[in-house]
Amino acid sequence: MKSLLLLALIAGPTLAAVPTQATAQNDMERGRKIATEVCAACHGADGNSPTAVNPNIAGQHADYITLQLAHFKAGVRANAVMLGMATPLSADDMRAVGLYYSRQKPKGLAAKDIELVKAGQALWRGGDAATGVPACSACHSPTGAGIPKSYPRIAGQYADYTYAQLKAFRSGERGMDKDGKDANGRVMHGVVKAMTDQQMKAVAEYAAGLR
């Protein structure tokens, strides 16, 4: 009897946590509705942003999108526009939006400055040993696809947007929240604090052309 009770306690929550196909479809429809009604003006209905001011999020990891929405809502990331967008969303809404955009196809971009691309490729693959800057590929992968639940996809991201975020990490505007909730942001602050503006521009330009 004790063995059966133990098995029930172990198996019960695990079975309940498995999402059904119907649940996933409902989440996709919920995410599509929110994306179309709330997010599309800035990020595009399919996650391919019409302007470099706002990031492309098509194909971005669902967990990363969900976490960033939670950070905007909680004020961990300071952005007045995104605070207004995220505040009405529930945790389930955020997960649905993350799931929806993660399933969309990125259109991709092309790098424009060949000299910056060459410098960016060197930093991406090997870092800068002289200043202690690690290779970007270690966390974001050689193709820029990132690592689900850990590091975001930045392949095909607008170079201007990536550069702006790198500057925000370096200055502490992003990733240095007083409560320390943005753990990966603190990692990025440490990574980019020794980078020059030119190096950040080079990495951003190289990442834009990755697939």
What does this structure look like?
With 211 residues, the protein is mostly helical. The chain is 58% helix and 0% strand. It has 2 domains: 20-102, Orthogonal Bundle (Cytochrome Bc1 Complex, Chain D, domain 2), CATH 1.10.760.10; 114-208, Cytochrome c-like domain (Cytochrome Bc1 Complex, Chain D, domain 2, Orthogonal Bundle), CATH 1.10.760.10. 36% of the residues are buried. The protein starts with a helix and ends with a helix.
Biggest pleated-sheet summary: none
Q: What do we call the CATH topology of the largest domain?
A: Cytochrome Bc1 Complex, Chain D, domain 2
Number of domains: 2
Oligomer: single chain
Overall mean pLDDT stands at 91
**Would you count the extended β strands for me?**
0
Summary tags:
single chain, 211 residues, mainly alpha, Cytochrome Bc1 Complex, Chain D, domain 2, 2 domains, 58% helix, globular, disordered N terminus
